[in-house]
Amino acid sequence: MTWHVAEDDLRAYALGELAPPLLWSTDTHLTRCAQCRARLAAGTDPVALDLAWERLDAELDAPRPSLVERLLVRIGVADHTARLLTATPILRRSWLLSVLFLLVMTVLAVRVADLPGLFLALAPLLPLAGVALSYGPGLDPTYEMAVVAPLHGFRLLMIRTVAVLTAGLALNGLATLALPGYGLLALAWLLPALALTTTGLALSARLGPVLAPALVGGAWLTLLAVLETRPHTAGPLAPFTAAGQSVAAGLAVVAAVLLYQARDRFDARPLRGFADGGPA
Predict the structure, then answer these.
(1) To 10 degrees, the CA torsion angle through 138, 141, 146, 152?
(2) Spatial distance between the Cα atoms of 37 and 4, rounded to a whole number of angstroms
(3) Dist. CA 13–CA 36, nearest whole Å
(4) How would you classify residue 114: left for phi > 0, otherwise alpha for psi between -120 and 50, otherwise beta?
(5) Spatial distance between the Cα atoms of 10 and 122, rounded to a whole number of angstroms
(6) pLDDT at position 274, please?
(7) Are 165 and 197 in contact (CB under 8 A)?
(8) Phi, psi of 275, deg, nearest 5
(9) Cβ(217)–Cβ(196) under 8 Å?
(10) Is 221 left (phi over 0), alpha (psi -120 to 50) or beta?
(11) Given 131, 143, 147, 248, which is the most exposed site by the fewest CB atoms within 10 A?
């Protein structure tokens, strides 16, 4: 081989400043010429070369963002926020399909047995369970990443809660459309769902992300069971009447205020307490 890369061109190539088409011919030549490769290695800063390899390794190892994550970034959501949001465990396909299957089976049971109370009792529990499963080291596989992210714990919790509520309420809403014969009664789950979810979050600051929603969900089912066993006139149970809806709305507001007042607790103990699902 009689032709070799000139010193100036080789230096420009090492600095990443060599422009096409000379860049292309230099690339091709270096693959076949050991002498020019040796000259390139001798004239390259080893520290800069190591840094370049590290950047290349990081680029190759970095996970490719999903379609939802790219859309969130495009509309202005910060990269780390979009990654934490799309990593919410309960927004995975398996969870969503399971919830959808459960709602479909419930709707079919309601239409066959004409028991709207079955759907109204179940629907408020799904957002509560979804929020409970979206935060905490024992439940969230991305919890360590969330702890070191430049986000307050309370803000992360709210981001995850909004995502869960959006998905859960959307699925519940679709199920509601399959019960047109019940009119507005089919929407009576909405305020109880918000009340249960907000109350569960408020209690999580003291009781942890597992015990709090478990107690709230158990109290809801117990209330419905007690009301069902008591003699009552034909019509919906008390939580699904106008008075019951007003109580649910008031409870949601009170719980939201208590949750905001306890917001610092979600930053004060990111590992202890929440690691075992109980209070610190």
Answers:
(1) -40
(2) 10
(3) 12
(4) left
(5) 70
(6) 42
(7) yes
(8) -65, -30
(9) yes
(10) alpha
(11) 147
Tokens 């149970």 sit on residue: 237
Taking alpha carbons only, the member of 120, 99, 238, 233 closest to residue 182 is 120
74-132 pLDDT tens trace: 877 777 667 666 666 556 665 666 677 777 878 777 777 777 778 888 888 888 888 77
* Six token digits for residue 117: 């109370």
Select from 116, 149, 140 the least CA-distant residue to 210: 140
Spacing of C-alpha 126 from chain mean position: 15
Average pLDDT over residues 179-185: 78
| Burial degree of 23 (CB within 10 A; 0-12, 13-18, 19+) | middle
The pair of structure tokens assigned to 1 is: 């081989």
Rounded Cα distance between 158 and 178, Å, is: 30
Alpha carbons 150 and 167: distance in angstroms, whole number: 25
Calpha distance 7→160 (Å, rounded)? 56
Return the structure tokens found at 126.
Answer: 């799904």
CA separation for the pair 46, 43 (Å, rounded): 9
Give me the residue label for tokens 């529990």. Answer: 125
Of residues 116, 115, 110, 109, the one with CA closest to residue 186: 116
| Structure-block tokens of residue 161 | 């809660």
> Is the entire prediction scored with pTM above 0.70?
no
Where do we find the tokens 């379609």? 67
8 A C-beta contact, residue 270 and residue 144: no
Q: How far apart are the first and last CA of the chain?
A: 73
